[in-house]
UniProtKB/TrEMBL annotation:
SUPFAM superfamilies: Oligoxyloglucan reducing end-specific cellobiohydrolase (SSF110296)
Top-level taxon of origin: Bacteria
Species: Neobacillus paridis
Keywords attached to this entry: Signal
Key word Nucleotide-binding present: no
PROSITE patterns referenced in this protein's UniProt entry, alphabetically: PROKAR_LIPOPROTEIN
Signal peptide: 1-18
Name this protein carries in UniProt: Sortilin N-terminal domain-containing protein
Length: 322
């Protein structure tokens, strides 16, 4: 089944305005870890001012206490009321996903660091100081990448046929060593979108589409629509529930959904203009009351009490000197 892919958040805003085969990915890694290290001393230092033009993902890595933003300037971290940035490895981390040991990501490397472009799928367990190839290093870039927080499960959408990888939704149960393609039975949307993986049960995923959220308990082999057919721009897991943002009747909403019972709760959050939808949502698995979201215009909000109160951490991607 061929589906058009939503690989650009710009396209979302424009829309608002108007058999299973095993694939081995082992030889997609460079033999013997033959990849470059950063040539500049890597530190994470407090920053008093910055301007982000694009946020590519947000999350709470388990090896740190901060909220990570993957941006056009590399990693930007909000921790204990202060902002931090890295002195090197300012890669374009597309498909950024926080996990318990750090993060995985795709994207493009900062020039001069010696990493191959594109990055394929990489992982870092030391807050971005170095990266290890997971799969398809130097071969592909994956905008839609997802991972289980505490397990070996990785999902991605592959736009074009690639050696050892099928077109469409692919998943690995062993940290990228072998890949299978999701059958997507029951999937009726005209687009593939953002994937979220249950933090502890890697067989369970949810996908945000222009026609609602599709939910699967078998790695995407069978998919079930669990919302009305409205546009969903971001989704993540909050325990066994789903936290998602939708656009309904020209309004941006934030909701919590039990995908089994269908029960929904609408959460209060700061008003957002119609042309500034929520692009990424994050929940801290170590503290489920700590949640955050970013928007198309690079606003970032965080709540530490489950959405009762929100703090505006960033407006228009800009942090100015105080």
């Amino acid at each position: 089944m061929k589906k058009s892919l939503l690989f650009s958040l710009i396209s979302i805003v424009l829309l608002i305005a108007a058999g299973c085969t095993n694939k081995s990915g082992q030889d997609s890694k460079p033999a013997g870890g033959n990849y470059a290290k950063a040539k500049v001393n890597y530190e994470i230092k407090e920053t008093k001012a910055f301007k982000l033009n694009r946020i590519y993902g947000i999350g709470y890595p388990g090896n740190d206490t901060g909220l990570y933003l993957a941006s056009n300037q590399g990693l930007i971290i909000y921790r204990a009321g202060k902002w931090f940035e890295s002195t090197a490895n300012r890669h374009q981390y597309i498909g950024f996903q926080a996990v318990n040991t750090g993060f995985i990501a795709s994207g493009h490397p900062q020039k001069g660091t010696g990493y191959k472009d594109p990055l394929g799928i990489m992982k870092s367990n030391n807050k971005g100081k170095s990266m290890e190839p997971v799969a398809f290093y130097g071969k592909a870039n994956f905008h839609f990448l997802a991972a289980g927080y505490a397990g070996p499960d990785i999902y991605m959408i592959n736009e074009k046929p690639l050696e050892q990888l099928s077109q469409g939704v692919n998943y690995s149960k062993d940290n990228g060593q072998n890949w299978q393609v999701s059958k997507l039975k029951g999937f009726q949307a005209d687009s593939l979108g953002m994937i979220a993986v249950h933090p502890e049960k890697g067989d369970i995923i949810a996908m945000a589409t222009r026609s609602g959220i599709y939910y699967s308990t078998d790695n995407g082999d069978t998919m079930k629509l669990v919302t009305d057919p409205f546009m969903v721009t971001a989704v993540t897991f909050l325990g066994d529930s789903l936290l998602f943002s939708s656009v309904e009747e020209n309004k941006i909403l934030l909701k919590r959904l039990d995908p089994v019972t269908g029960n929904q709760t609408t959460l209060s959050f700061p008003f957002l203009d119609y042309d500034n939808p929520i692009t990424y949502l994050a929940v801290n698995p170590k503290n489920k009351k700590q949640i955050a979201f970013s928007t198309y215009k690079n606003d970032v909000y965080e709540s530490v009490d489950g959405g009762e109160k929100w703090i505006n951490l960033l407006s228009n991607g800009k942090k100015e000197l105080e």
